[in-house]
Amino acid sequence: MNSTARKIIAVAGAGAGLISGLSAVPGSASAEVGAVDWWSGDSYYYRTVSDANPKIGDVITVTTQFQRRWSFEDIYNYKDIQDGCLTYVPGSAKWQNSTSSPAKNVTVDDAVAGSLGSVRFDSSGTTAWRVPGLGSGLGEKRTISVAYTVGADCPTGVNLATGTVHYGGSLGDGIWQGKGPAIKVQTPPQKVATTTSVSVTPAPKVGDPSTVTAKISSDSTVTDGTVEFFNHSTSIGTADVVNGKASVSWTPANEGAYSLKAVYSGTATLAGSSSSIGGTVTPKDPDPEPGAPIITLSNAPKLDQATTITIESDAAVGSAVALTANGTNLCSNLKLGSDHKVTCSWTPNASGAVALKAVIGSQSTTKNVTVAPKVTPTDPTTTDPTTTDPTTTNPGSGGNGSLDTGSLGGLFK
Length: 413
Prior knowledge:
Residues 370-413 are annotated as: Disordered. Residues 1-31 form the signal peptide. With 413 residues, the protein is mainly β. The protein folds into 3 domains: 3-175, Immunoglobulin-like (Sandwich); 195-281, Immunoglobulin-like (Sandwich); 287-413, Immunoglobulins (Immunoglobulin-like, Sandwich). Helix content is 0%, strand content 45%. The protein has strands at 3-11, 30-40, 43-49, 59-68, 73-83, 86-88, 94-95, 104-109, 116-122, 130-131, 142-150, 164-169, 172-175, 194-201, 210-218, 226-231, 234-240, 245-250, 256-264, 273-281, 294-297, 307-312, 320-325, 328-329, 334-335, 341-346, 352-360, 363-371. The strands form 6 sheets. Strands 1, 2, 3, 4, 6, 7 and 11 form a 7-stranded antiparallel beta sheet that branches. Strands 5, 8, 9, 10, 12 and 13 form a 6-stranded antiparallel beta sheet that branches. The relative contact order is 0.10.
């Protein structure tokens, strides 16, 4: 038995007349075709792979070409054997690259990467797949081809487990081992690093929606990919990246500690990354009594930043309002104005959970909030939801147009 092996370079479309069954990788301008041939008696075999150096995700076609001298041979069944990291493309097993005589009884034997799996199938009839002979010269070529997708589990930069072919025919069995051709998957280019930061605003409270935002930074422009968000180990949603950011809405169901994590998927050129933040979910506000005052805030409270608290009630104009934060009085001499509202400027000097309570006569309302710590922006050119510029402090004002904000020690000032 004589055996030779060789490699050739074929440009897509240029080598179609040279190698029967040759196909280029879709989207490629060229492909490095691997080929091996051998004789056995009066049979000549020429076996090719459309791209011997593919990339992860490429589709490659492995073709075995048959030729005979003297007598013909009918092929009854065929087994193509390849590394288990290559996934058979359903419907790709073909005789003469045609659907006119389809393969039957296709059976796929899967294997892990580095081990050999196989695709076995039968001819469409006992004489349907015939390799003609031609006296002392070689008869016409006949081909069997199988396509595979290069899996992400394929090792790169080294040869895959060597494939081969087995078949059964009218002249007996052809059992070949380790024929190839060799396939070496390209080592992908190193991806550009990214960093992910995550923020949440307003501060999480039971029953109230907050927006969780991830910001992805890189030396390259970040325009795509996805971010999946988690609270502890539970996914709270996935969002596409737009202009370097992605966000989801999250409504906590329970109070207590939270741990939010954002995981950026990366892309073909950008590496993935992730980051986490933690804190405490504030309890749900108690249901207000009928006619009780309503408390609203101009913005989510942050350390050393002024927030305007507004109390609204249908009580009589001029009614006295007592406002406390964790039991400490805020803003003295508060009275309802002609619009049945009064405001108080509050600048907390410590972060953490705060219960704001407004009392008018015999009725009261409590609103639970969380004071966020001061965060120094990592990118001074971009305003992050948790690091906005401090709001200008407004003096306390009410229905009479003037209030003494007072001076409070401890947690507030």
